[in-house]
Design brief:
The complex is a heterodimer of chains A (248) and B (638). Chain A has 248 residues and is of the alpha+beta class. Chain A is 34% helix and 12% strand. Chain A has eight helices and seven strands. A five-stranded mixed β-sheet of chain A has the order 2-1-5-3-4. In chain A, helix 5 packs antiparallel against helix 6 and helix 6 crosses helix 8. The longest helix of chain A has 16 residues. Among the domains of chain B are: 135 residues, Flavocytochrome C3, Chain A, domain 1, CATH 3.90.700; 126 residues, Up-down Bundle (Methane Monooxygenase Hydroxylase, Chain G, domain 1), CATH 1.20.58. Chain B is built from 17 helices and 19 strands. In chain B, strand 18 and strand 19 form a beta hairpin. The longest helix of chain B has 25 residues. The two termini of chain B are 41 Å apart. The chains are: A alpha+beta (248), B alpha+beta (638). At the A-B interface, helix 1, helix 2 and helix 3 of A face helix 3, helix 5, helix 6, helix 11 and helix 12 of B.
Chain lengths: 248, 638
């Protein structure tokens, strides 16, 4: 099929950036979206033009590198699908596609479609862990965990840290990302000791990094490739209020 | 070249305890005086960085991704082995050791494998303490599943995302140490060379992938945890960025490279769809617990799979290996798939595929149970192929997945360059000629959490604090200049082919001649074609842009340049090893039924290669493998 692509090109963080139009003549429906961009880049390099920089690695939907906004939707039109797992069979001959980076103040553009998500790193470093020094663990089965509890924790732990939730939110809120980590650890017995401190520190860091607040539009849940539910935001809010009320 | 493995004396079950007592310690107050560089932040590098920082060492971690959480360990699906015997089904440290040595076709080092089995149980404890949400039974205790090459259920799993959850565990411990100021992170930074001063590894030269800046970093020692080289085949289950550069550059600086021809072709991947394909996707081996593998009995049978009656199907693994059936080790399952496809019985439009069928399991257990076990894998399959595996059998075919070969290390995980330790898939040590499923995660975490924290201290204590140097040292400047020269050369060629197209051509050569089956004629042909292709690359590659930029073309070209040299080493090793063992199948050495024929008289050794120059053949050194506990037999899974 033939496609027209409108792609955000931006030389570096200081450049203003603009949309540039490209045409592709021979796109196979079996290609992934990123393979379609590979084909474009091979053509650009052959014409001695600068290829489009975009982030990708595993190409199986788990590393969280890929971060494209396709036709205004983070990760594109398919539900529960990272853009690396989006396949071109969902498009038709003659389609025009708009491709932009994940946009948020806390995710400055590095080049073209690549953004800096270092803010996520700093939020995790502020408390997204259980302090369990190597060697100090008791036997694994000495901490029985109900199957349902473990499943709930897993639903939150499935987050791949891609940042689609932030890109989709009109407030650029990172609440779903932070809530996923807070709830993953907060739903497990091992995570109880640091539960209050964790939520206080992570929320403070999240605000400091320039992410906005949540106003319950649920766009984050709609685009989340791992379908992390917004109920975890509610749980984080409860944890946060409780921690604020009971901390010194 | 000295290949002393430094295996401790005494009975195998006591070696590690004895060694831990015999090795020297660094007093807690002195640990902060030592700095270690760690390259790679997957399970091995991430767990090592976290643990060494907890102990008090200064740690600097380097990785090419934007976050340590994105290393390719994240993609491991099926599980992690541990000799917990929670199922009361006869497992033990010795049995895990035995299964791993046997699964590796008797080409691994006994003492290392035994230690791996010993520490396996502590890994599970550690991960649970970190909050890894392993699968549970209703009583709240940990669940297990079985995996290829074992007759006990010892695999712990977290849905089909075990690697992700284990890596996030290591990453969270590492993040804690970063927050505490004990680890300095260098994201988007690629190692380009190793700095060796007075015969010891003292630092690395890196390129910043955003700014292009080339600079030196100095420490008291260097750890490589940079993964495997499966992308030498171009198409593999590895992430696009996985590469051999760090390990290969260390090899060029004097580290021996062991058994490079031992590569694992994973039997259950989604088949190639077309020329545009950039990677292959694994479908976890755990699917073989409930899926049945088959092809039509007749090569002429072109009916849709659900129209082919039972009587016309050949469940070839169950037929050939009745006691292990669909759970034979990976090398055997892969080769069997190749055999039926070579007979013309392969399925799908390319003829390179076999069916993995869940119909019987769905009838027996119900769709809900199958969905609970494999739901995310089935969804992934449907997203990629557009077919629903609950209704139509999956199509699968083997693909490059893991590399057992790697930099040679001794019992302390140190390479032949003093001060250069190598962990995880990047070293060669534990899997012999074939790795069993769910053992890669175990090894990566064993090396990082429970081996290097002891052996690194021993190195520092035994060697004493090295002479302080800084990045103005002439050797740093010399290596930086070499790296810059290479980058400038790449940018100045201005030819007509992209690095990707040359990588794809290299992959085809390697897959055809050094893939699932190898023979002398094919390997000789590869040995002719690789230098030609390398020359083509250095004369005709086209890399746009400049060094001082986020330059994806330059990044890729640097990695391809190293694959173009490394591939030759792999072929030489395959040519030299005149036997079939594990993932290395030489067609000249097989039984009439097509089973591998090992040659223990001449090849029961590690082949460790020493670099002698790009266009000069490397020199091979042998480390004999001595089996004091396990008796070498012909592997039988019948």
């Amino acid at each position: 099929m033939k496609l027209t692509l409108h792609i955000w090109r931006q030389k570096n963080v200081h450049d203003q950036g603009r949309m540039v139009t490209y045409k592709l003549d021979d796109v196979s429906p079996d290609m992934s979206f990123l393979e379609m961009l590979d084909v474009l880049n091979e053509e650009l390099i052959s014409k001695r033009e600068d290829p489009v920089a975009f982030e990708h690695d595993c190409r199986e939907g788990i590393c969280g590198c890929c971060s494209l906004t396709v036709d205004g939707i983070a990760h594109g039109p398919e539900r529960a699908t990272t853009v690396c797992q989006l396949h071109m069979r969902h498009y038709s001959d003659g389609d025009e596609i708009y491709i932009e980076p994940f946009r948020a103040r806390a995710f400055p553009v590095i080049k073209d479609l690549v953004v800096d998500r270092g803010s996520f790193e700093r939020v995790i470093q502020s408390g997204g862990f259980i302090s369990a020094r190597t060697g100090s663990a008791p036997d694994a089965n000495s901490i029985p965990i109900g199957k349902d509890e473990a499943e709930t924790a897993f639903d939150a732990a499935a987050c791949i840290g891609c940042g689609a939730c932030v890109a989709a939110c009109k407030n650029s809120s990172a609440m779903l990302f932070v809530a996923a980590k807070v709830s993953h650890l907060g739903n497990l017995p091992q995570g109880q000791v640091e539960r209050q401190e964790r939520v206080l520190n992570m929320v403070a860091k999240m605000d400091e990094e320039g992410f906005g607040g949540c106003t319950n539009y649920y766009e984050c849940e709609a685009v989340c490739p791992k379908q992390i539910p917004v109920k975890f935001i509610a749980q984080m809010n409860r944890d946060y209020l409780k921690a604020v009320a009971t901390s010194d | 070249m000295n290949l002393d493995a430094k295996i401790p004396s005494g009975p195998i079950a006591e070696k590690w305890d004895k060694h831990r007592f015999d090795i020297k310690l660094i007093n807690p107050a002195n640990k902060r005086k030592y700095k270690v560089i760690i390259v790679g932040t997957g399970l091995a590098g991430g767990s090592a960085a976290a643990t060494l920082a907890e102990l008090g060492y200064q740690v600097e971690a380097f990785f090419y991704q934007d976050s340590a959480r994105r290393a390719h360990s994240i993609a491991a699906q099926g599980g992690i082995n541990a000799a917990k015997n929670y199922q009361n089904d006869g497992d033990s440290v010795y049995r895990l050791f035995y299964d791993t040595v046997k699964g590796g076709d008797y080409r691994s080092r006994e003492a290392n494998v035994y230690r791996l089995s010993q520490v396996s149980a502590s890994i599970i404890d550690q991960c649970v303490a970190q909050g890894v949400p392993f699968a549970r039974e209703y009583g709240g205790y940990l669940d297990n599943r079985s995996f290829g090459g074992a007759q006990v259920s010892r695999t712990f799993y977290a849905r089909g995302q075990t690697g992700q959850q284990l890596l996030l565990g290591a990453y969270s411990s590492l993040s804690r140490q970063v927050g505490l100021g004990n680890v300095r992170m260098h994201p988007r930074t690629e190692m380009h060379d190793l700095i060796v001063i007075d015969g010891k590894a003292r630092g690395i030269v890196t390129r910043n992938l955003v700014t292009g800046k080339v600079e030196s970093h100095i420490a008291d020692s260097v750890i490589l945890a940079t993964g495997g080289y499966g992308n030498v085949f171009y198409l593999s289950t590895n992430a696009i960025g996985c590469n051999v550069t760090a390990a290969y550059r260390a090899y060029k600086r004097g580290a021996a490279f062991a058994n490079p021809c031992f590569t694992q072709i994973h039997p259950t991947c989604i088949p190639v769809a077309g020329d545009h394909q950039s990677k292959l996707t694994l479908m976890s081996e755990s699917l073989r617990n409930d899926g049945r593998i088959w092809v039509p009995k007749s090569a002429d049978d072109k009916r849709a799979p659900n129209d082919i009656p039972e009587s016309d199907r050949d469940y070839y693994l169950e037929r050939k290996y009745p006691s292990f059936g669909n759970l034979t080790p990976r090398d055997i399952a892969s080769r069997s798939a190749k055999q039926v496809c070579d007979e013309g019985r392969g399925i799908g439009h390319t003829g390179y595929g076999v069916y993995l069928d869940f119909k019987d399991a769905i009838n027996r257990l119900g769709k809900d149970k199958i969905e609970e076990r494999y739901g995310n894998l089935f969804e992934m399959y449907e997203r990629i192929t557009g077919e629903n595996p609950y209704e139509v059998p999956m199509r699968i075919y083997p693909a490059s997945h893991y590399t057992m070969g790697g930099l040679w290390v001794d019992y302390n995980l140190m390479s032949t360059i003093p001060g250069l330790h190598v962990l995880g898939e990047a070293n060669f040590s534990d899997h012999g000629a074939n790795r069993l499923g769910a053992s890669a995660l175990m090894q990566g975490l064993a090396d990082g959490y429970f081996v290097i924290p002891y052996t690194l201290g021993h190195y520092y204590a035994a060697e004493g604090k090295p002479e302080p140097i800084d990045t103005d040292h002439p050797e740093c400047k010399r290596v930086e200049a070499e790296v810059n020269e290479k980058l400038n050369k790449l940018l100045s060629i201005n030819g007509n082919r992209t690095a990707v197209s040359i990588h794809r051509e290299l992959g085809n050569i390697m897959w055809e001649h050094c893939g699932m089956a190898r023979n002398e004629a094919g390997l000789m042909k590869a040995l002719e074609r690789i230098p030609e292709l390398r020359q083509e690359f250095w004369e005709n590659v086209n890399i746009t842009g400049e060094n001082e930029d986020y330059n994806i073309a330059l990044e890729r070209a640097g990695r391809v340049a190293d694959f173009l040299e490394f591939s030759e080493l792999m072929v030489r090793d395959a040519l030299e090893r005149k036997e079939s063992c594990g993932g290395h199948f030489r067609e000249e050495y097989q039984t009439e039924e097509g089973e591998a024929v090992r040659n223990d008289d001449d090849y029961c050794h590690v082949s460790a290669w020493e670099f002698k120059g790009v266009d000069t053949p490397p020199v091979m050194h042998k480390e004999p493998l001595v089996y004091e506990n396990v008796k070498l037999t012909t592997r039988s899974y019948k």
